[in-house]
Amino acid sequence: MRVKLVNANGGVKEVKVGFSWTTLFFGFFPALFRGDLKWAVIMFIVASVTGTLTFFVLGLGAWIPGIVFAFIYNKMYIKELLEKGYRPADGQAHAALQTNGIIAA
Prior knowledge:
Helices cover about 55% and strands about 10% of the residues.
């Protein structure tokens, strides 16, 4: 499900709520392309460290953080947008964010 968020200047961002398939398949690149440099760097470092520690098992440990971030990244991204002043554009977006536990009633 996608929701629209707007800020005070009229800027609109359409964001996906829930599991992030792009993060699962492309790692830190979706965060990088969204301009979310903080989380892109965090994801890169965590995947690099985990991959390095499991190097002798073919580096398969680098997939573990990717799977974890795929479940939580969209929620973290939306919460940061809300902290930066974005608000749900309509009642449907507000209800979707409430249902997914991103905002309180």
